[in-house]
């Protein structure tokens, strides 16, 4: 089940947080609860992605995209993710999450998020996201124009390009028998 109460808590905690610049980092704090763990007594990988949602949604509000999307009747979607899990997160661990926009290309916005426990990064996710309306995905240039963002993104890091290129070689639909 989606953690609606946690999302409401994040919205409440950060309701008066100052606006962030487009590429600034939003920092939030979370706790790994018993209902977040798997049979191995660590943060479930699916729940990790859900917790990343909480950081991303507040980031979008703080950089001004939530109000814009509501006004324009746009929605957001995740179009791809690459996650590195490096350290276990155990029940009752306190998590510091960092979320930031990296940049965009013609179709997608790229974000990165990381979780830290006791100063050690436990996981990192690279996300390819899109803004949609009732007709489908919007070009990032359109979103940037309406949002008053610069028309051109800063150069995306090479590792972001490499992931996109590698992902483009995967067959679709999958060839699973």
Automatic annotation (TrEMBL):
InterPro entries in the record? HotDog_dom_sf, THEM6_lcsJ_thioesterase
Reading the lineage from the top rank, the first entry is Bacteria
The protein here is known as Thioesterase-like superfamily protein
